[in-house]
# Entry
Amino acid sequence: MLWRHPDLPMENAEDRMFSLKQDSSFSCDRFINSDFIQYVIHMKRTDWAKDEIESLKQEGRYIPIRTIGSPQGPYVRIESDTYLNMCSNNYLGFANHPDIRRAAIEAIEKYGVGAGAVRSIAGTIDLHRQLEEKVAEFKHMEGAVVYQGGLLANIAAVPVLVNKQDVVFSEELNHASIIDAVRLSSARKYVYKHMDMDDLERNLKEHRREGKKALIISDGVFSMDGDITPLKEITELGERYDAMVYVDDAHGEGVLGDHGRGIVDHFHLSDRVDVEMGTFSKALGSMGGFVSGSSSLMDLMKQRSRPFLFSSALNAGDTAAVMKAISILEHDDTPLKRLWSNAEKLKKELADFGFDTGKSKTPITPVMIGSEKKTLELSQLLYKEYKIFASPIVYPTVPRGTARIRLMPSAAHSPDDISIATEAFRKAGRSLGIIS
# Structure
């Protein structure tokens, strides 16, 4: 007898059909519990993912993931072609800096490729302590704790600072890692409007007494728009309403402040901001993250923060690479100056061609399109016709109707590279009717 289970799809039905002998040896229970049927049930449980992917494609929000086969730099190899790279966070060109590469290699030769344990058991090496001291000195803070990434640094720190008895005042456009960290803390949360200090104060007046402790938390540089949080005003409100101030400076390291020390140094607030968090994966070119603050608070982070206690430590190669990157910045701010020069040229030429580059105050350069489908079309045209690697940014990374291509100039770009990029945008933008 030839039989097909009624829940099985008809495609390739002959491959899913089998003969059942009509005798007493057949067991319905054994058939239902067979590996074959369990495999089919499992596949059907995740079929919803296909529908989600199809929906993303129909809405113009499915982003192609490009695979790079070369070091990060002004140009990268993707498959068999070379592309001008305009979307990397490699602000200073440190991701392939020869001295930083050498430092990582030497550390791997001495310490190996992995830490082998969490920091609190057997994973702390002398390089970790040296990097923490170097970060604290660079940031003009008492202490620092190093983590495996910037996202993990936020998730580590916020639940140590506040809990369900406390209250958090969070910026409207904060990074996803801050949003997740606040959720994990179980603290009561109030969101204030973007860059709106009147709204922040209104929230503090109305809700500060709801928590034993209070925390104001904000990005320093907003990664999708390039604007800078009014940290001085936030700090003053924190002092007035007895609220700790926490700033995520992932896009400020190597970009703002004296020799790239970041947003706190930029506003001269190192003695007034309670926690400065940052990442090593952007301007510093490597991997990892940190939080910095008072020595007692940093000591508490090592006792209570989950990524420190439950995830293996940053490897030696990345640790040494970051130390070398900071040392370069301390002694030479030429890459920082070149980054800003390239950013100014990029924005001016795009504006001259009629593109809207938003309100950025940093090298982050959003080319505002609005339509998600049109943004994807522009990105694909730049990629296919002009060999420009410029990824689209669409919902949910940014709100609906604000899709853009976020350009990230680097100190590694030449002025000619910038002009090649802007000319490609001019041609592609006109062909798609984005500019006249």
User: Anything to note?
Assistant: The CA atoms of residues 247 and 276 lie 5 Å apart. The longest strand covers residues 214-219.
